[in-house]
Amino acid sequence: GLYVCGPRRSASGYADDAGRPDFPSSLAFLLVASVREVIASRTRITTREVAYSDFYTLLDSGRVRAARLESGVGRMYFDMQPLTAPAPAAAAQAATTPAAPMRFQKQYVVKLAERSDSLLVAKILAMGVEYSVLKQTFLSALATTLTTTLAVWIPLLPLLFLFRRIMEDRSSSRKKKSDGRAQPVLTTFADVAGVESAK
Protein backbone atom coordinates (compact mmCIF):
# COMPACT_ATOMS: atom_id res chain seq x y z
CA GLY A 1 0.00 0.00 0.00
CA LEU A 2 0.91 3.67 -0.25
CA TYR A 3 1.61 5.47 3.00
CA VAL A 4 1.55 9.24 3.25
CA CYS A 5 3.80 10.78 5.87
CA GLY A 6 2.43 13.72 7.77
CA PRO A 7 2.28 15.27 11.24
CA ARG A 8 1.08 13.05 14.03
CA ARG A 9 -2.46 13.83 15.07
CA SER A 10 -4.08 13.42 18.43
CA ALA A 11 -7.44 11.84 19.14
CA SER A 12 -9.19 15.16 18.54
CA GLY A 13 -7.85 15.25 14.97
CA TYR A 14 -5.50 18.21 15.42
CA ALA A 15 -1.79 18.05 14.89
CA ASP A 16 0.29 17.56 18.02
CA ASP A 17 2.49 20.56 17.27
CA ALA A 18 -0.42 22.96 16.76
CA GLY A 19 -0.19 26.01 18.97
CA ARG A 20 3.49 25.57 19.70
CA PRO A 21 5.66 28.68 19.21
CA ASP A 22 7.84 28.65 16.12
CA PHE A 23 11.21 29.29 17.78
CA PRO A 24 13.33 29.16 14.57
CA SER A 25 11.16 31.82 12.95
CA SER A 26 11.33 34.06 16.04
CA LEU A 27 15.11 33.64 16.22
CA ALA A 28 15.45 34.44 12.52
CA PHE A 29 13.30 37.55 12.95
CA LEU A 30 15.46 38.81 15.83
CA LEU A 31 18.62 38.09 13.85
CA VAL A 32 17.37 39.99 10.80
CA ALA A 33 16.27 42.92 12.98
CA SER A 34 19.68 43.03 14.67
CA VAL A 35 21.53 42.96 11.34
CA ARG A 36 19.32 45.75 9.96
CA GLU A 37 19.95 47.85 13.05
CA VAL A 38 23.71 47.35 12.81
CA ILE A 39 23.73 48.26 9.11
CA ALA A 40 21.60 51.34 9.77
CA SER A 41 23.87 52.43 12.62
CA ARG A 42 26.93 52.14 10.37
CA THR A 43 25.37 54.37 7.75
CA ARG A 44 24.58 57.07 10.27
CA ILE A 45 26.77 60.05 10.99
CA THR A 46 29.51 59.43 13.53
CA THR A 47 28.35 60.86 16.84
CA ARG A 48 30.84 62.68 19.03
CA GLU A 49 30.44 62.70 22.81
CA VAL A 50 30.87 66.03 24.60
CA ALA A 51 31.00 66.92 28.27
CA TYR A 52 27.96 68.21 30.11
CA SER A 53 29.65 71.56 30.83
CA ASP A 54 30.60 71.99 27.16
CA PHE A 55 27.00 71.38 26.16
CA TYR A 56 25.89 74.10 28.60
CA THR A 57 28.45 76.50 27.10
CA LEU A 58 27.28 75.75 23.57
CA LEU A 59 23.69 76.20 24.68
CA ASP A 60 24.41 79.59 26.27
CA SER A 61 26.25 80.80 23.16
CA GLY A 62 23.32 79.89 20.91
CA ARG A 63 25.29 77.30 18.95
CA VAL A 64 22.85 74.44 19.56
CA ARG A 65 20.26 74.19 16.79
CA ALA A 66 18.25 71.10 17.78
CA ALA A 67 18.28 68.56 20.60
CA ARG A 68 16.74 65.11 20.94
CA LEU A 69 16.43 63.21 24.21
CA GLU A 70 16.55 59.41 23.86
CA SER A 71 13.97 58.09 26.28
CA GLY A 72 14.97 55.66 28.98
CA VAL A 73 18.76 55.84 28.61
CA GLY A 74 19.72 59.37 29.68
CA ARG A 75 21.38 60.45 26.43
CA MET A 76 20.74 63.65 24.54
CA TYR A 77 21.74 64.08 20.91
CA PHE A 78 22.14 67.53 19.41
CA ASP A 79 23.49 69.29 16.36
CA MET A 80 24.81 72.82 16.02
CA GLN A 81 24.35 75.82 13.82
CA PRO A 82 26.64 75.90 10.76
CA LEU A 83 29.74 78.03 11.26
CA THR A 84 30.14 79.12 7.63
CA ALA A 85 28.55 82.51 6.94
CA PRO A 86 26.50 82.61 3.71
CA ALA A 87 27.50 84.89 0.85
CA PRO A 88 25.60 88.22 0.54
CA ALA A 89 23.70 87.05 -2.54
CA ALA A 90 22.82 83.75 -0.88
CA ALA A 91 21.80 85.57 2.29
CA ALA A 92 19.50 87.91 0.34
CA GLN A 93 17.94 84.98 -1.48
CA ALA A 94 17.49 83.09 1.78
CA ALA A 95 15.76 86.11 3.29
CA THR A 96 13.16 86.15 0.52
CA THR A 97 12.76 82.35 0.31
CA PRO A 98 11.07 80.48 3.15
CA ALA A 99 13.64 78.25 4.82
CA ALA A 100 13.03 74.52 4.64
CA PRO A 101 13.34 72.67 7.93
CA MET A 102 16.80 71.18 8.37
CA ARG A 103 17.06 67.47 8.92
CA PHE A 104 18.21 66.54 12.40
CA GLN A 105 21.58 64.80 12.54
CA LYS A 106 23.06 63.13 15.61
CA GLN A 107 26.32 65.03 15.45
CA TYR A 108 26.96 65.16 19.20
CA VAL A 109 25.75 63.37 22.30
CA VAL A 110 25.88 64.27 25.97
CA LYS A 111 25.21 61.93 28.88
CA LEU A 112 22.79 63.23 31.47
CA ALA A 113 23.06 62.65 35.19
CA GLU A 114 19.39 61.69 35.21
CA ARG A 115 17.23 60.11 32.55
CA SER A 116 15.17 63.29 32.36
CA ASP A 117 16.87 66.54 33.39
CA SER A 118 13.94 68.94 33.83
CA LEU A 119 16.15 71.99 34.42
CA LEU A 120 18.14 71.33 31.27
CA VAL A 121 14.98 70.80 29.23
CA ALA A 122 13.59 74.09 30.53
CA LYS A 123 16.79 75.88 29.53
CA ILE A 124 16.72 74.30 26.07
CA LEU A 125 13.16 75.47 25.52
CA ALA A 126 13.99 78.94 26.84
CA MET A 127 16.85 79.25 24.34
CA GLY A 128 14.49 78.48 21.46
CA VAL A 129 16.21 75.21 20.56
CA GLU A 130 14.19 72.67 18.58
CA TYR A 131 13.53 69.86 21.05
CA SER A 132 11.79 66.48 21.04
CA VAL A 133 12.07 62.97 22.48
CA LEU A 134 13.35 59.97 20.50
CA LYS A 135 12.18 56.43 20.95
CA GLN A 136 14.69 53.97 22.33
CA THR A 137 16.48 52.05 19.58
CA PHE A 138 16.41 48.26 19.32
CA LEU A 139 20.05 47.87 20.33
CA SER A 140 19.63 50.23 23.27
CA ALA A 141 16.55 48.34 24.46
CA LEU A 142 18.38 45.02 24.06
CA ALA A 143 21.38 46.33 25.99
CA THR A 144 19.11 47.62 28.76
CA THR A 145 17.35 44.25 29.00
CA LEU A 146 20.63 42.34 29.14
CA THR A 147 22.05 44.70 31.75
CA THR A 148 18.95 44.34 33.93
CA THR A 149 19.00 40.54 33.58
CA LEU A 150 22.68 40.32 34.50
CA ALA A 151 22.22 42.71 37.41
CA VAL A 152 19.48 40.47 38.79
CA TRP A 153 21.05 37.05 38.20
CA ILE A 154 24.75 37.62 38.86
CA PRO A 155 24.27 38.26 42.62
CA LEU A 156 22.08 35.14 42.82
CA LEU A 157 24.63 32.78 41.23
CA PRO A 158 26.77 32.33 44.40
CA LEU A 159 23.62 31.67 46.44
CA LEU A 160 22.41 29.09 43.94
CA PHE A 161 25.83 27.42 43.92
CA LEU A 162 25.90 27.36 47.74
CA PHE A 163 22.39 25.93 47.90
CA ARG A 164 23.36 23.21 45.45
CA ARG A 165 26.43 22.29 47.51
CA ILE A 166 24.33 22.09 50.68
CA MET A 167 21.80 19.80 49.00
CA GLU A 168 24.56 17.57 47.61
CA ASP A 169 26.21 17.31 51.05
CA ARG A 170 22.91 16.37 52.65
CA SER A 171 22.17 13.71 50.07
CA SER A 172 25.67 12.23 50.38
CA SER A 173 25.47 12.16 54.20
CA ARG A 174 22.10 10.40 54.04
CA LYS A 175 23.53 7.84 51.63
CA LYS A 176 26.48 7.17 53.93
CA LYS A 177 24.16 6.68 56.89
CA SER A 178 22.00 4.25 54.97
CA ASP A 179 25.07 2.32 53.78
CA GLY A 180 26.60 2.22 57.27
CA ARG A 181 23.66 0.59 59.01
CA ALA A 182 24.34 -2.96 60.27
CA GLN A 183 22.55 -5.53 58.19
CA PRO A 184 21.01 -8.45 60.13
CA VAL A 185 23.00 -11.67 59.77
CA LEU A 186 20.88 -14.71 59.05
CA THR A 187 22.01 -17.88 60.79
CA THR A 188 21.15 -21.15 59.09
CA PHE A 189 21.18 -24.71 60.39
CA ALA A 190 24.40 -25.40 58.47
CA ASP A 191 26.19 -22.73 60.51
CA VAL A 192 25.37 -24.36 63.86
CA ALA A 193 25.37 -27.98 62.78
CA GLY A 194 28.52 -28.88 64.76
CA VAL A 195 27.79 -26.85 67.88
CA GLU A 196 26.60 -28.84 70.93
CA SER A 197 24.56 -25.96 72.37
CA ALA A 198 22.49 -25.75 69.23
CA LYS A 199 21.09 -29.28 69.73
From TrEMBL:
Keywords, ordered alphabetically: Membrane, Transmembrane, Transmembrane helix
Transmembrane portions of the chain: 138-163
Lineage top rank: taxon: Eukaryota
UniProt keyword annotation of Transmembrane present: yes
Protein name, as recorded: AAA domain-containing protein
Species for this entry: Haematococcus lacustris
